Amino acid sequence: MKIVLADDHPVFTAGVRDYLDRVPDCRVIACVTSADDLVRCLESTPCDLIITEFSMPTTRVSDGLHLLSYIRRHHPQTWQIVLSMNAFPVVLQQIINSGVNGLLHKSDAIPELGKNIRQLGSDTPYVSPSFQAMLQVEVEEQGKYRVPSPRETEVLRLYAAGNTLHDIARRLSKSVKTVSLQKAAAMKKMGLRNDIELGRYCATFTGDVIQPHGHGDWFLPELACGKQAAGH
């Protein structure tokens, strides 16, 4: 099995690679440190499995969810395992819903990666114990965290990118009241209490600056969150 590793922490990548070198039939053929480098690598280096961090530096692809979507559309036969430290249940559910084959917490024991690899091809993604516990809390709280609708997500993305409610209403041809209600509904679904928490939520998707609208396949606007809300 040919594997590409993507993570912007070289020490972590070295540890994963050392483990995979001892797993039968696994061979790491490339390591990259950004979302942009991963996309470029896949164009010239076909592989069977991508093991990637969710939030990596990027200047073209908008965020972690869009990276996963881009890979799924352009490399549909390639398995994807996501590594993350994310603690937002709604983000974890969005990652799972994106069609990945595994979701592991970076603090999990390294053999969890081997378990995930052995289950590749299963109808359901492998979710490590740490993330299973986080998602169980969500269930026990009776669905406190829910995924916003595409329009609600678009409103949040535009707001987090620095647009006012009036700007968003004009861009989407909606009333300010409608846009305000959509923003409030989306935040309530995700358990976000104020704009500061909204900024932190958006910051979990990406590790660097994103380009503005207009980059074709590299930029999928319906789900993106801008980093400006995180203080950049």
Quick structural summary:
Helix content is 45%, strand content 12%.
Gross geometry? elongated
Helix content: 40-55%
Q: Separation of termini?
A: 39 Å
CATH superfamily of the largest domain: Response regulator
Q: How many strands appear in the DSSP assignment?
A: 6
* CATH architecture level-2 label of the largest domain: 3-Layer(aba) Sandwich
Q: What ranges have pLDDT less than 50 throughout 5 or more consecutive residues?
A: 206-232
Could you give the order of strands across the largest sheet?
2-1-3-4-5-6
Radius of gyration from CA coordinates: 18 Å
How many distinct helices?
10
Structural class label? alpha/beta
Element pattern in H and E: EHEHEHEHEHEHHHHH
- For the record, the CATH class of the largest domain is Alpha Beta
The average pLDDT is 80
What CATH calls the topology of the largest domain is Rossmann fold
Strand content range: 5-15%
List the domain count as a whole number: 2
The largest sheet, given as strand count, sense and whether it forms a barrel, is: 6 strands, parallel
Overall description:
The chain is α/β, with parallel strands linked by helices. The chain folds into two domains: 139 residues, Rossmann fold; 57 residues, Arc Repressor Mutant, subunit A. Helix content is 45%, strand content 12%. It has ten helices and six strands. A six-stranded parallel beta sheet has the order 2-1-3-4-5-6, with helices on both faces. Helix 7 crosses helix 9 and helix 8 packs across helix 9. The longest helix is centred in the last third of the chain and has 15 residues. The C terminus is likely disordered.
